[in-house]
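Course assignment 3, question 2. Fill in each field.
Student: A.L.
Task: Predict the tertiary structure for the chain below.
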Amino acid sequence: MNIAVIGLGKIGLPLAVQFADKGHNVIGIDVQERVVESVNSANEPFPGEAGLKDKLAATVSSGRLRASTDYSEGIPNADAVVIVVPLFVDDSTWEPDFRWMDQATQSLAEHLSANTLISYETTLPVGTTRNRWKPMLEAGSGLREGSDFHLVFSPERVLTGRVFADLRKYPKLVGALSDDGRDAAVEFYENVLDFDSRPDLAPRTNGVWDLGSAEAAEMAKLAETTYRDVNIALANEFSRFAETTGIDVHKVIEASNSQPYSHIHRPGIAVGGHCIPVYPRLYLHSDPEATTVRTARLTNMAMPERVVKATLARIPDSVSNPHVVVLGAAYRGGVKETAFSGVFSTVDALTSRGATVSVHDPLYSSGELRDLGFTPYILGQSADAVIIQADHHDYQTIGSDDIPGVRVVFDGRNISSADQWPNAEVLIIGDGETRSFE
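Answer field:
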């Protein structure tokens, strides 16, 4: 097949490589000239995706994959078009910002030819495929969905860093606007993906799953990610109560999850990444009466402020402008990505209370940290307090020898121990022995 992939980001590029690796002819389209040049040179535009470097080199050298900024090069002759363009959410209103996706859809429509399958993989509010993309594509192309072209929604369900493994591991969900579109989508994804055996899914098998409608597929992606946000918020509420009553919530969660009907997640200082902090807001756009979802999102957003308040309360009043080191700029351990990372709200909460703040992250250079707006911390410099924001492997062993003078440590990820900080008061999230939120 001839396939076009619109959006060569951390999901789109691995998808394009996957399709080309299966023997299809793929053109990736991206508005960033830098990304296009990098792909055509077989150089990764971003680091850290397992297997991408070798697969990219192989598919580009074979001629199966190339990139362009020009829609006219990839769309007119495409049998299938997959769109993975970012959808942003306004921080203050929580409303989706469709501008980038609208522009991509309009450009696609201008060059669309008949007999093309169009699949949106960007996570969307329920109803967007039918009520926004269908009329926009029809108006821009003069073609009719369901007869001249087919439109489906098929959400990406992968994590950056392990995209190729996740593509094999999880069922590929599709939701179409017509029966013919469903058949085309199922056939397409069966031809571009491979699936691991999943006996745990019995009686179903791993593969392409038709959900019956675009709306059902849209909701499935929002449901699986919103569930995690709500679950984490519940764990954070449990941790708050446990800390004020002298209970170790981690032991409680371990005990609760020892039976098969409990799946409580871990509490933490922040919920970051492109997915979990964002998609509950998209769900609320579709279902504004979902008070549980809204409360959970607010609960998780409040965690950095609670951690900062508890940390600074342990520093003596005689210490003016305490120096606090935040360990971790990334939103999760081992991933060089700051999307919705808790570092931003943690630093803001500290500076608003008069603290001097510096940030350390083993994945970022001092220059990169400065570009993010932070003062870099160099190990060996003295500090008054430490807040562990990301669960990088390096932070499992860091201690007073690395950051001298520390009086208070708040471990927001439960990866450190008091033994590593013999001269400091150590607060561990969810550990009732520390009474950290009293």
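Instructor remarks: The chain is about 40% helix and 15% strand. The chain has a mean pLDDT of 95.
Grade: pending
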